[in-house]
Design goal:
Chain A: It is a multi-pass membrane protein. Chain A: Residues 19-208 form the ABC transmembrane type-1 domain. Chain A: InterPro entries: AA_ABC_transptr_permease_3TM, ArtM/GltK/GlnP/TcyL/YhdX-like, MetI-like, MetI-like_sf. Chain A: The chain crosses the membrane at residues 20-45, 57-76, 82-103, 149-169, 189-211. The complex is a heterotrimer of chains A (220), B (221) and C (259). With 220 residues, chain A is an all-alpha fold. Chain A has 8 helices and no strands. Chain B is built from 9 helices and no strands. By secondary structure, chain B is mainly alpha-helical. Chain B has a single domain, classed as Orthogonal Bundle (MetI-like fold), CATH 1.10.3720. Chain C has one domain (10-258): P-loop containing nucleotide triphosphate hydrolases (Rossmann fold). Helices cover 36% and strands 25% of the residues of chain C. Chain C has 9 helices and 11 strands. Chain C has helices at residues 49-56, 88-91, 109-120, 125-138, 154-166, 184-199, 211-217, 235-240, 245-258; strands spanning 10-19, 23-33, 38-42, 64-69, 72-77, 85-86, 94-97, 172-176, 204-207, 220-225, 228-233. The model of chain C has no long low-confidence stretch (mean pLDDT 88). Classes of the chains: A mainly alpha (220), B mainly alpha (221), C alpha/beta (259).
């Protein structure tokens, strides 16, 4: 093996800037996904086909195509189709946010359907109207039950943000690519970057594991 | 602007070749990745601390980093470390197999864990030797229970395979992007590419539900 | 094996068993069971009844004591390191049926029955299948041979589980609350099968909460509480006119709840 390691030549400035962009993308996409995923879940559970079918199509389309295809499609096609020119950061947030929204809608749907029937019966018996039942019974129970999946999806989108590097958003992955090319130090750069992604993802996945174990304990 | 989807017809063959590369890559990595995942799943439930530690680090690391980073690492760094040139296909297969191995090992681990202790009681009461317990009772149940999640894992792999376009492998996504750039018709081309992915992945996700309802419900596994 | 008629079939000597440092389930059990006896073990939950059967089957480790079968000790923990020694050859002459059926869900009824004979004894598939089919017919399950456990009622599952255990020609059957998980209307069909075995003088040890069944099947009843044998005698005595106060309390309460 003729490769000598040199971690010194990796400059951390650009990587740090990239990480900030990556985190901004993650937080913004999660805001969209967590907030708008819930109403979308209600739409895909609607009894009215004209409401339900388009919503389901939206969700299934995002779940059944590669994220990279969605992102590239977004960057090329949205400006042409709608004649709007948004900043690349905004585009990245929108693409990732809509993707996450679809995945979170599924998580919410599963959690809503797992709300026990008796809870709703109790709500009816107490004279709550459908909106009140949704707000005070379904929402709190379902949100709590879906937290582990929301966190998993959230960390998933953190990893997917790396894809925007392909359409020139200057995130962590983008900075890594340019640094690796400039310094001819791909091993050091990509290893460090992988460790940075890991350092953010791993603690969150441990929290998810803890929440799930606690949930199982409480249910058994 | 006027959309003209007929442009796709001119590139049928190129797209078909790209799709074939995507499908081939996915199938190879499904087979290799599931086999790897099964043994890693066993290793993670093993009594040996060393086996458990090594397999856990592998799984957590591959689940905790973007697949794109893994792919870049294997494309650009592995040849430097090994000192040999790797073909695009080889690198792609290595990267996606390692990814698939990590996610399916979790599937197998969960299915192994879900087999209740009373099944083992029954094995002991029938005097079944350890080998028979594993091959005739535990293994078939673990695999049956894992099937729905494994199918979902396959869909994930199929989608993630589009990332190899970023390192220059001529898969469906790569071909689509090239055509889109050359014809300046991204809407038509990229939409069709997305549709092709959808038309393959969507039925697979439905198959998951079908398997769960039909096969597993019949066996109540 | 030469064995005088009065020699015990099972001999349990000062059996101790605990879960962790604080929970002692069996505190020195001594039981002798003669050939042809049908022993019903009753008692309050947590009194060690099920643990006793699980220990006899070799499913649980013990702290100390020994169990012999047909004069041969096969489970013991006498040495200082408290390791439970189990003679698997002897253990194979004992069959057990559990509360929750424990059929293998991925195998059909007939496959459940022939797995052990084929794999343990090396019996041919054809011969095992023939015996299995005959056994199923006898238990009124002839038509279910190719069904999967999930397609059976609880009573049918339990009858299959009994048939599965019988495929190995056991010399002693252990029944651990085999009707507790069943809907009331399915209990009788399972008890009928066990009575059928009793009529062929199959030795058995039964843990049950069903006092009617206990009265019908037992040749001897043991009342077990707090990890020890409190009373041991013929069913008329233990169930009808118990000598011990604790037994009387228990019997009174059980019948009080029933009626």
């Amino acid at each position: 093996m003729g490769y000598s390691f040199d971690f010194q030549s990796v400059s951390f400035g650009p990587l740090w800037e990239g990480l900030i962009v990556t985190l901004e993308l993650t937080v913004a996409a999660n805001l969209i996904g967590v907030v708008l995923g819930f109403p979308l879940a209600l739409l895909i559970m609607s009894r009215f086909a004209p409401v339900r079918l388009p919503a389901m199509l939206f969700v299934e389309f995002f779940r059944c195509t590669p994220a990279i295809v969605q992102i590239v499609w977004f960057f090329y096609c949205v400006p042409m189709l709608f004649n709007v020119f948004l900043g690349s950061m905004t585009m990245g947030i929108l693409a990732l946010g809509l993707n996450l929204m679809a995945f979170n809608a599924e998580a919410y749907r599963a959690a809503i359907q797992a709300v026990p029937r008796e809870q709703l019966d109790a709500g009816i018996a107490l004279g709550l109207n459908p909106l009140q039942r949704t707000l005070y019974i379904v929402l709190p129970t379902a949100v709590r039950a879906s937290i582990p999946v929301l966190l998993t999806n959230g960390i998933g989108i953190f990893q997917q943000t790396a894809l925007v590097a392909i359409v020139a958003v200057q995130d962590l992955m983008y900075q890594a690519k340019s640094l690796a090319t400039e310094t001819y130090r791909p091993i050091e750069t990509f290893t460090i970057v992988a460790l940075v992604y890991f350092a953010v993802s791993f603690p969150v996945s441990q929290v998810v594991g803890f929440l799930e174990r606690r949930r199982q304990l409480m249910m058994s | 602007m006027a959309l003209d989807f007929s442009i796709i017809l001119r590139f049928q063959e190129a797209l078909a070749l790209g799709l074939w590369t995507t499908v081939k890559l996915t199938l190879i990595c499904v087979v290799l990745g599931c086999s790897l995942g099964f043994f890693i799943g066993l290793a993670r439930t093993s009594r040996s601390t060393l086996l458990r530690a090594v397999s856990s680090v592998y799984v957590e690391f591959f689940r905790g980093t973007p697949v794109l980073v893994q792919l870049f690492w294997i494309f650009f760094c592995l040849p430097l470390i090994l000192g040999v040139e790797l073909s695009n296909l080889t690198s792609g297969v290595i990267a996606l197999t390692l990814y698939m191995g990590a996610i399916t090992s979790e599937t197998f681990r969960a299915s192994l864990k879900s087999i209740g202790p009373e099944q083992l009681d029954a094995c002991v009461a029938l005097g079944l030797p350890r080998r028979v317990q594993v091959t005739n009772v535990i293994l078939p149940q673990a695999v049956l229970r894992a099937i729905p999640t494994l199918l979902s894992n396959c869909v994930s792999l199929f989608k993630e395979s589009a990332l190899v376009s970023a390192v220059g492998m001529a898969d469906l996504m790569f071909v689509g992007q090239n055509i889109s750039n050359n014809t300046a018709r991204p809407i038509e081309v990229l939409t069709v590419v997305a549709l092709i992915y959808f038309l393959i992945a969507f039925p697979l996700t439905r198959a998951v539900t079908l398997v769960e309802r039909r096969v597993l419900a019949k066996l109540a596994i | 094996m030469t064995m005088s008629f009065s020699a015990p079939l099972v001999k349990i000597q000062s059996l101790h068993k605990s879960y962790g440092p604080h929970i002692q389930v069996l505190k020195g059990l001594d039981i002798e069971m003669k050939p042809g006896e049908r022993v019903v073990v009753i008692g309050p939950s947590g009194g060690g009844k099920s643990t006793l059967l699980r220990v006899m089957m070799g499913l649980e480790k013990i702290d100390s004591g020994s169990i012999s079968f047909g004069g041969k000790p096969y489970i013991s923990s006498e040495s200082a390191d408290r390791k439970t020694e189990i003679d698997t050859e002897v253990r194979r002459s004992i069959g057990m049926v559990f509360q929750h059926y424990t059929l293998f869900p991925h195998l059909s009824v007939i496959q459940n029955l022939i797995l052990a004979p084929c794999k343990v004894r090396g019996e041919s598939r054809a011969s095992a299948t023939k015996r299995a089919q005959a056994l199923l017919e006898r238990f009124g399950l002839g038509a279910k041979a190719n069904a999967y456990p999930a397609q059976l009622s609880g009573g049918q599952k339990q009858r299959v589980a009994i048939a599965r255990a019988l495929m190995l020609d056991p010399k002693l059957m252990l029944f651990d609350e085999v009707t507790s998980a069943l809907d009331p209307e399915l209990v009788a069909e399972v008890e009928q099968v066990i009575l059928q075995l009793a009529a062929q003088s199959m030795p058995m040890m039964i843990v049950t909460h069903d006092m009617w069944f206990a009265k019908n099947i037992a040749s001897r009843v043991i009342f077990c509480a707090g990890g020890v044998v409190v009373e041991d005698g013929p069913p008329e005595q233990v169930l009808g006119a118990p000598k011990e106060e604790r037994t009387r309390d228990f019997i009174d309460r059980v019948f009080h709840i029933r009626h």
